[in-house]
Automatic annotation (TrEMBL):
<protein>
    <recommendedName>
        <fullName>Enoyl reductase (ER) domain-containing protein</fullName>
    </recommendedName>
</protein>
<feature type="domain" description="Enoyl reductase (ER)">
    <location>
        <begin position="21"/>
        <end position="347"/>
    </location>
</feature>
<dbReference type="InterPro" id="IPR013149">
    <property type="entry name" value="ADH-like_C"/>
</dbReference>
<dbReference type="InterPro" id="IPR036291">
    <property type="entry name" value="NAD(P)-bd_dom_sf"/>
</dbReference>
<dbReference type="InterPro" id="IPR052711">
    <property type="entry name" value="Zinc_ADH-like"/>
</dbReference>
<dbReference type="InterPro" id="IPR013154">
    <property type="entry name" value="ADH-like_N"/>
</dbReference>
<dbReference type="InterPro" id="IPR011032">
    <property type="entry name" value="GroES-like_sf"/>
</dbReference>
<dbReference type="Pfam" id="PF00107">
    <property type="entry name" value="ADH_zinc_N"/>
</dbReference>
<dbReference type="Pfam" id="PF08240">
    <property type="entry name" value="ADH_N"/>
</dbReference>
<dbReference type="InterPro" id="IPR020843">
    <property type="entry name" value="ER"/>
</dbReference>
Length: 349
């Protein structure tokens, strides 16, 4: 390993102080785990994109346990700058991204280990990962575009699986996963219905993606939004629901998904509300629904998505809300926590 490599890194660790107005993150300098394990690689990070999950964890709302004062972040892209002496598939200079669930390599592993929860995340300028836990990135994308692939990208990819061209998908919200799902759905020839609580956001997205037109539903001004979706689909319901609301929306989502359709559960924005789930079992039986939980995906899923992006030459500049410096992580997390973004917020190094 070269002698001129860094021995420390800068990383944003959680303060775990949830008092009003208190900082949620702290920028620290810490030692890198060197020398490298024989099968590990050292990655110089060029961009990290943030997700609602990051803001939720930073504000103490994650429904699963997290390690104290962990490094935030799931989505990162960078280049390999050093490799262990038994690394077989990667080389210095390769463009890579870690997978979000580092225990999920093939999709058949029984356990899981989530970045920023069970282990440190990727909001740092250098990362060390075993080569099995990273994948190569599309050559035609810049670092900002690449940084949205591992969490938002793979989650959307996994959520849309199994729906052929010409079918209808309802995508909830205008956050990172939602906008990535919109891009992939349109590239796959799917009819898109988009829901949001903001007419302004819906209007902006429909102007941005005019052809073919996107149909929209405002669930705040139309509390019976599931009935509006049924009207848009001639009473049948959508073929696939990308469900991000959680307990307070999943029953309505099931009501406007066609019999035998798929509800991909990717989020929990509403928090736990058991009183909203009384109809869940009867509806799932009556409508013969497939309800599947989406935990991003495996390394194989990430590799498949990157292959699809390369084959179609997709780019994602049109779903990037903003690009901020790495030093602005605290403000960027708060911006997402307040739900101001459309698409992805990226921190560039």
């Amino acid at each position: 390993m070269p002698n001129d490599l860094p021995t420390t890194r800068r990383a944003w660790r959680r303060t775990d102080d949830y008092a009003p107005g208190a900082p949620r993150l702290q920028l620290v300098t810490e030692a890198l785990p060197l020398p490298l394990h024989p099968t590990s690689v050292l990655i110089k990070v060029h961009a990290v994109s943030l997700n609602y999950r990051d803001a939720n964890i930073a504000n103490g709302g994650n429904p699963w346990p997290v390690t104290p004062h962990g490094v935030l972040g799931n989505d990162a892209a960078g280049e390999v700058v050093a490799v262990g002496d038994r690394v077989r598939f990667l080389a210095v200079g390769d463009r890579v991204a870690p997978i979000v669930d580092t225990a999920n390599l093939t999709g058949r592993e029984p356990g899981r280990s989530w970045l920023a929860a069970d282990e440190d995340g990727v909001l740092a300028d250098y990362l060390v990962f075993d080569e099995d836990k990273v994948s190569k990135l599309p050559d035609h994308l810049d670092w900002v575009n690449c940084s949205i692939i591992p969490c938002a990208g793979v989650t959307a990819w996994s959520a849309l699986k199994g729906v052929p061209i010409g079918k209808t998908v309802l995508i909830q919200g205008t956050g990172g996963v939602a906008m990535m799902a919109l891009k992939l759905a349109r590239a796959s020839g799917l009819r898109v219905i988009l829901s949001s609580s903001s007419d302004e956001k819906l209007a902006k997205v429909t102007r941005q993606f005019p052809d073919p037109p996107i149909e929209t539903v405002n669930y705040r001004t139309n509390p019976a939004w599931e009935e509006q979706v049924l009207k848009l689909t001639n009473g049948e319901g959508v073929d696939l629901m990308v469900e991000v609301g959680g307990a307070s929306t999943i029953v309505k989502s099931m009501k406007c998904t066609r019999r035998g359709g798929i509800v991909s559960v990717v989020g929990y924005l509403s928090g736990p509300r058991s009183e909203d789930l009384i109809e869940l079992i009867p509806l799932s039986i009556d409508r013969r629904l497939i309800i599947r939980g989406i935990d991003a995906g495996s390394r194989h899923d990430q590799e498949d998505l990157c292959a699809a992006i390369s084959a179609t030459q997709l780019t994602f500049d049109d779903i990037i809300d903003s690009v901020e410096p790495f030093e602005s992580a605290e403000e960027a997390v708060e911006y997402i926590w307040q739900g101001k973004q459309i698409g992805k917020v990226v921190l560039k190094l």
